[in-house]
Design brief:
The protein has 557 residues and is of the alpha/beta class. It contains 24 helices and 20 strands. Helix 7 links the parallel strand 6 (128-132) and strand 7.
Amino acid sequence: MKMKGSDIVVECLLEQGVDTVFGYPGGTILEIYDSLYKYQDKINHILTSHEQGASHAADGYARASGKVGVCMATSGPGATNLVTGIATAYMDSVPIVAITANVAVPLLGKDSFQEIDITGVTMPITKHNYIVKKIEDLAPTIRKAFQIAKSGRPGPVLVDITKDVTLAYTDYVKAKPEESENKYTYATETVKKAITMIEESERPFVFVGGGAISSDASRELKEFVERIDAPVCDSLMGKGAFDGTSPRYSGMLGMHGTKASNLGVSKCDLLIVVGARFSDRVTGNTKAFAKNAKIIHIDVDEAEINKNVLVDLGIVGDARSVLSALNLLLKQQNHPQWLKEIRALKDRYPLTYDTDVLTGPYIVEQIDLLTDSEAIITTEVGQNQMWAAQYYHYKHSRQFISSGGLGTMGYGLGASMGAKYAKPEKPVFNIAGDGCFRMNINELATASRYNIPIIQVVINNHVLGMVRQWQTLFYDKHYSATVLNDKVDFVKVAEGFGCKAIRVTKKEEVAPAIQEALEHNGPVVIDCIIQEDDKVFPMVAPGAPISDVFDQEDVNR
């Protein structure tokens, strides 16, 4: 049947199972928004306060659900406002499809009003992108965009559609979504070599990254870890892939990883890496990283093998399928002495903080306690992010949602709204510092408009906390441009946006505030005032080996 281009866009979204879209309208995309109006009983459109909020919301939706997130924007500044969110998704391998509209084909290349080459702008930060200039190409392009976004190593895809295409008519035939292309062939000899290396190991350690979450490999990972009888650590992106309450779990690895994980990986004789890319924040000095160990690296992206750290065996494939293949051949291993040694490290070097005053770790622990470790936690970036990673116990995949690779301040509030739409049955907290909270505070208007029951926790120390921490430790306390001790009152601001707001200044006020927020049917902001020099420990100095991990006691010596 003949159908207008704008209607084809929405029909293609329905084909892909899309139920929620985040966006902001404008001149060139008006036809698509007119179609969304006609289809409003089938697709829920969330009008954000800024296009960046839309891209972060689509990202949070994708991470929480495992589905492809969708955002929309008009041409020019609308499209460029999506860029930070697209880059965030790209760095963390998150499947989103960003749909933008551009000026009509005859106006392209003429510096027309609100014209921008958004495909050129986003080429380095997308898996693929398209500009659709012919109506016949529209449906096939959107379908291909979804397939690319979710196949292999996931990532963002942008589809730019000229306005005349949204107005044109062509034949439309409904189609079923194509299966993701996740077929990998790794030699049987490679799997057998991995088995041999595992059987020869006396001190194996498993390091888990975000790839284990993308491939939904938690069950296979648990079986694998138990078969090889090893301890487990994770990256920031890998949190929840392995149960954080398990006795085998030693904590996060890297710059703000636990001493047990950092020292354990430095002592192991075999490091098995599942879906991680050896970020500099994980490895520290790569020459000294796991220097006593052979390394097996399982990753869906061949480009990651030997990119940052040279490994002894690389297996390119989907984490779940590779682990399944290994589990079929593995015999039960036993390493009681090694596990005892890691438990001793955990007992000797627990995470600690000042219990006499209100601190970030205490706030996160109370959220953990009052949600039974079952909430979805989104974060901003900096100290708040590290405390959320360290002190909340993530039992499941897709519980922890944070910008890892790009480190995007202002990410969490939009992401929390997307996560809530993906998982309405789960409590959703966004843990932020006051610096990050300011970045996209306007999205409180979105949360209020739609009465989205998210809980925004601001760990407010009136400084840019992580930058100040570095200035304290490495820059002789030169606090350049990091003090935010102004007259902004987040409680009044939140109430002005139509949200419930609570201020907390004492430890005994934390639990009641969280409980009140959990019982409230709508968005809540909890402004928690802490000391300006509360720090994140443990820590590894940039460029140092992770075995040189130190904490507050080491600093005081």
